[in-house]
Specification:
Helices cover 35% and strands 16% of the residues. By secondary structure, it is α+β, with helices and mostly antiparallel strands. The protein has a domain at 126-167 and 249-409: Orthogonal Bundle (Transferase(Phosphotransferase), domain 1), CATH 1.10.510.10. The chain is globular. Bound molecules: adenosine-5'-triphosphate. The site of adenosine-5'-triphosphate has 22 residues, from strand 2, strand 3 and strand 4. Adenosine-5'-triphosphate binds at residues 50-56, 58, 71, 73, 123-126, 129-130, 258-259, 261, 272-273, 275. It comes from Vararia minispora EC-137. This is Pkinase-domain-containing protein.
């Protein structure tokens, strides 16, 4: 096993954990008892699977007492504390960016699972699904979005991205962090991260908004040995870190239609899946740093939406938030033509690889009714050299201009 590359081990873990979860889901259908989950004294009924990702399943879960529904994301952490820390970094990213177009996290729990751990994230449910689901519906029906509708969806997505690219380091103590942990689940040895000021050890559902916005103490000593969360690195300001109030751009690094949910109004996009979110500016000083970034991108950033500089990371460069601008170009293209510019293309059909097509920005606009300005916006983002791409504010102002023009037509 030692000789196997890390990516193989990850794949083996995925197969193992997905098989386990699939089996327990089937068993849960047969045995009502197994489709319930008890966390911190509350019982949740697992209604159905909403979706699945690389290391996670997302369920529709209903609180038995209140009847309130949640999207419950179950993340498997097979590789010890590093896996849990990675999951908690995702949690912290959800908490860091408060924006109407970014998903809110309602609560978090960590549960022992044999040798590994499971992290549960409680999220609001978006019953309309994500933009990839919408694209699939268009494909089946042989329909397309109008330019105006696309630009409305794209604008909200860009606003979420702008909140990340222009993130300001908070003043110490002003960020909400999970403040305490405790162990009290009968079956699972669950550790629920919850509001410190709630003696009952949880939030009331009416209080959910307050629970994510009340400033808690920045970093607390956990009450068990399982310190699973080491705080927002942005709070660690000082001689070597950014000063409070500085702009520290973050990159999402996995922007794609499947990671944008649609709110119930059918018009408001909600950015989610922050498992790949990272401080955007990374200076690559040597080959091993370059390979690390390349491997991370291969694991977390979907190929058909991944920026060219992440396929073959060069030394002596600084990766930055322009990786997301490339992905936004792919997202805008996909909303228009129902696939990424680098999948289903003639190039890939003729045996060329996606990686080669991306690295030379080889794609074509299919014949369509979309305006020249709209196509030019896509083209401006799909530039191989990140310096040639617009920044998020420029993308937004062009989107607004095109939206006004489309509304006037
Ligand atoms: N809040 C939600 N409401 C409804 N469905 C959801 C919600 N969150 C996630 N899903 C569904 O679950 C799927 C997987 O979720 P998510 O992308 O967070 O998992 P992941 O493991 O991080 O995936 P990836 O492999 O893309 O990184 C989504 O594509 C979506 O269909």
């Amino acid at each position: 096993m030692d000789q196997l590359p890390q990516s193989w081990l990850v794949t083996l873990d995925r197969i193992k954990y997905h098989a386990q979860d699939a089996l327990s889901t089937v068993a849960g259908c047969i045995c009502q008892q197994q489709s319930k989950l008890k966390i911190n004294g509350r019982t949740f009924h697992i209604v159905r699977v909403l979706g699945e990702g690389g290391f996670s399943f997302v369920y529709l879960a209903k609180d038995e007492a209140s009847g309130r529904e949640f999207a419950l994301k179950k993340i498997f952490c097979p590789m010890g504390m590093e896996g849990v820390k990675q999951a908690m970094r995702e949690v912290e990213a959800y908490r860091r960016f408060r924006h109407p177009n970014i998903i809110r996290i309602l609560d978090t729990a960590v549960v022992q699972d044999g040798e590994g751990k499971i992290v549960y994230l409680f999220l609001p449910v978006y019953k309309r699904g994500n933009l990839q689901d919408e694209i699939n519906r268009h494909m089946q029906a042989g329909t397309h979005y109008s330019e105006r509708h696309i630009l409305q969806l794209f604008k909200g997505t860009c606003e979420a991205v702008r909140a990340m690219h222009t993130y300001r380091t908070p003043v110490r103590g002003s960020t909400t962090l999970p403040a305490a942990v405790r162990q009290d689940d009968e079956r699972h040895d669950a550790v629920l991260l919850h509001r410190e000021d709630d003696p009952e050890g949880g939030y009331s559902y009416e209080d959910v908004d307050a629970a994510v916005s009340v400033p808690l103490v920045a970093k607390q000593q956990a009450q068990t040995d399982d310190v699973v969360f080491d705080g927002d690195q942005e709070l660690l300001t000082g001689a070597n870190g950014p000063a409070a109030g500085d702009i520290v751009p973050y990159a999402h690094r996995d922007l794609k239609p499947g990671n944008v949910m649609l709110a119930d109004d059918g018009l408001t996009p909600i950015l989610m899946d922050f498992g790949s979110c990272i401080k955007a500016r990374i200076s690559i000083e040597n080959r091993s740093q370059a390979l690390l970034q390349q491997d991370t991108a291969a694991e977390h950033s979907t190929m058909a939406y991944r920026a060219p500089e992440l396929f073959d990371v060069k030394t002596g460069i600084t990766l930055d938030e322009k990786v997301d601008i490339w992905s936004l170009g792919c997202v805008l293209f996909a909303l228009a033509y129902l696939h990424s510019p680098f999948e289903n293309t003639q190039t890939t059909e003729q045996g060329g690889s996606i990686a080669l097509a991306v690295q030379s920005a080889r794609y074509k606009h299919p014949a369509s009714q979309y305006s020249d300005g709209f196509k030019a916006l896509i083209d401006s983002m799909l530039k191989v050299d990140p310096k040639d791409r617009p920044d998020i504010s420029q993308v937004l102002s062009e989107t607004n201009r095109l939206l006004q023009a489309a509304s006037a037509r």
